[in-house]
Each structure stands twice: as structure tokens, then as C-alpha cells.
Task: structure prediction
Amino acid sequence: GVAILAANPLPQNQPIRGVVIGGIRPVKGQLDALMWLSESVKSCVPFTLDFAGPIIDPHYGEKFLAAVGENARAQYCGELSPDETKDLIDSADFLLNSSVSEGASNAILEALAAGRPVAARAIPGNAGLLASAPADIALLFADDKEGVSSFYTWLKKIGSSPPQETIRLAQRFVTGSFSLESELDALEGVYNQVLLASE
Result:
């Protein structure tokens, strides 16, 4: 199992369980995720967040651990092995990507491959992965008031324990959109463009 390094008693009602994967540093936006978690109480959205990843920025990490300690719906699992990370994602209802800046997120692809819906801050890297994904399995949201409100609405819709159809839809999307064949086709297109430009 996954050891919980910082935790509080969870609410009595079974909440929607989310995970946030990534090193603890400003660019990953974990403090923003905790703020969204705190503000969700006003919207009556019962969800929790499990955070996993090493503390890379000590100053940010100190603020993060303090914020986790003040939020009964947050837990910090520390740095996990690949197998432990997979187990954590498998046990969750959704993955949240709160990064301020990022390329293609492996955690997003891993969550979709596990059949878990993904909510992600609308930044170019996340949009590149999720712009064509069905709304049932993915949400790109702005970090303004309206965007975060849409995140809460999406959570109410997906609920806890994703149904089998949602799991299959997520898995079909990731295998269809990011298969080895599609990646090779994309690389071939780039290669051909380079050849044309050099002629």
C-alpha cells in the first residue's frame, strides 16, 4: 500500500477521490489545487485530493505541507515508485493536473490508460493532450472563478467510482490518440516538413 505522510481524518460521507501527481514545486501548482479543494466546500462538492511526488522546492514544500495539514480532505503520500503511483491512480476516481506550465504530462496519459477521468488546468501542454477528448473523461478549465466553477460542476457529473463505460471510453481515447502508430505518423509528418524546408 501507499504510506500517507501527512493526513487528516476524512469526511464521513464517501467523497470523490482525486490524485495530483508531480514534484512539489511552484510550476506544478499544488497550492492552487489545495485552494480549489478548500473553496469546493461552498459548492457542496465532496472530493478529496491525494498528492504524490518528491518535495523539489523546500520553501514551496513547507507551505504545501502546512496547507495539507490544515485541510481535512488532503493527503500527502510522498515520493512513490512507478508501481505505487499506478496503484494510487487505480484507486482514485479522477486525476487533477494543476500545472502552471508543462509539456505532455505522463500522469495524464497514465490516468486515461487506467480508465480514470482527468481534469486539467487549461495550459498549452494539457490542451495538446486533451482538446479532443470527450467531456465525460476530460476537462480543461481556466484558473479563474468561472473555470474553477466548471471544474466543480464536472466533478458532480462524474461522481465517485467511474462506471465501466467511462473507463472503457478513457482507455479507447488514449490508445486511439496516442498509439505507437499515431506517434510514428506524427514524427513522419515533422520529418517530411523538415525535408521540404531544406530543399
The beta strands are 16-21, 47-52, 74-76, 94-97, 118-121, 138-141. The radius of gyration is 18 Å. The first strand starts at residue 16 and ends at 21. The CA atoms of residues 183 and 189 lie 10 Å apart.
